[in-house]
Amino acid sequence: MKIAYFDCFSGISGDMCLGAIVDAGVSLQKLKKELKKIPIGGYGIRAKKVKRAGFSATKVNVIKQSTVRSQKLEVRRWKNIEKIIRNSSLSQEIKQKGLHIFKRIFEAEARVHGEAFDNVHLHELGDIDCLIDIFGTIIGLDMLGAEKVYSSPVNLGSGSVKTEHGILPVPAPATAEILRGAPIYSTDISFELTTPTGAALLKELSSGFVSIPSMTIQEVGSGAGSKDFKDRPNVLRLFVGDQLSKGLQDGEKATVIETNIDDMNPQVYEYVMEKLFKTGALDVFLTQVLMKKGRPGIKLTVLCKEADRERLIRIIMKETTTIGLRIYEVKRAVLQREIKLVDTEFGKVRVKFSRLGDEILKAIPEYEDCKRIAKRLKIPLVEIMKRISISPKA
After folding, report:
1. Contacts of 174 (CB under 8 A, 6+ apart)
2. Packing angle between helix 381-388 and helix 367-377, nearest 10 degrees?
3. Can you say how many angstroms the Cα of residue 145 is from the centroid of all Cα atoms in its chain?
4. What is the 3-state secondary structure (H, E, C) of 12-66?
5. Which helix (H) or strand (E) holds 372?
6. Residue 327 in 3-state DSSP?
7. Is the pTM of this model over 0.70?
8. pLDDT the model gives residue 68
9. Average per-residue pLDDT in the chain?
10. Is 133 helix (H, G, I), strand (E, B) or coil?
11. Hey, what domains does the chain have and what are their CATH numbers?
């Protein structure tokens, strides 16, 4: 499977995405031809080679012509953006991706300004170049053949940024809202490295924020940011190539939270586990252990995503007798999984199919469906599960 990986060590913006895509080998002329399917005019696109801290990169600029001034305000509300996208002759898949990205931006702006979604009026993002940056990136990734997109954790920069709402801290409120749940960090660069457009592209297109996946690199592109820092390259790197894992999603980061408990009523564990799962835990399990002075105890282990860590820690601290936790990061490898409704002699049953690339390795009926059928028909659960057993080739 061909994948694309954005290395956001110097943040990400819409024009940096376009630059990286063109630098990775996408023809600017072909990109322009596709973008003409969007019913807007009065702009041009130029690409040129530049240097950032001594390293070569491609800078792509959207040049607005005078005739675009009358259009500028018309693309600042959701109804206008939606109309333009739906009236385009782009493929339905590309239209939907673009609509989702813009919807994410409008939702973020609505939350940070306390406005109704339909009343949100974009400022810096409501211009023609935002449409070109977003759809140019979507179309370019499609031209590169990327079936999945991944990203590194995102560098936000620091300091402040001047906007139509005044001087705001970095990250801008909309950027912070869009990046909820994503791994971020800040360096000593006093500059807005990640824009709302770049953040929205990542959150909508990326399948995960991970270290560089195991892959055979075929293309590398560097998209230049607007500012040239003297001590570090202000570029967005894009790696495109074949994923080596052939469907095994390795390198995915997770957090382990664990604690040893020897003084809690065992009846409490079921309640705690249920609450942890509802709050986002990927797995929760108990292990019998021998503690100091030979006391029997239970080790509670929780596997979770980084974004859910603090909420899960609060639950464990409040709902159990523990006074301390161990927390560490791990990598996990998982098969690609999907759940399908399958016709059986008992009716439709959900079945979880696990794949390694194109090969289905496992097909397991959902336990809750089997339990429901067993209770309804008064047939032993083990018999139901045996009769529903499905070949992975199904």
Report:
1. 105, 108, 109, 112, 125, 196
2. 120
3. 19
4. CCHHHHHHHHHHCCCCHHHHHHHHCCCCCCCEEEEEEEEEECCEEEEEEEEEECH
5. helix 367-377
6. strand
7. no
8. 45
9. 88
10. helix
11. 2-246 (no CATH), 250-333 (3.30.70.1380), 336-388 (no CATH)
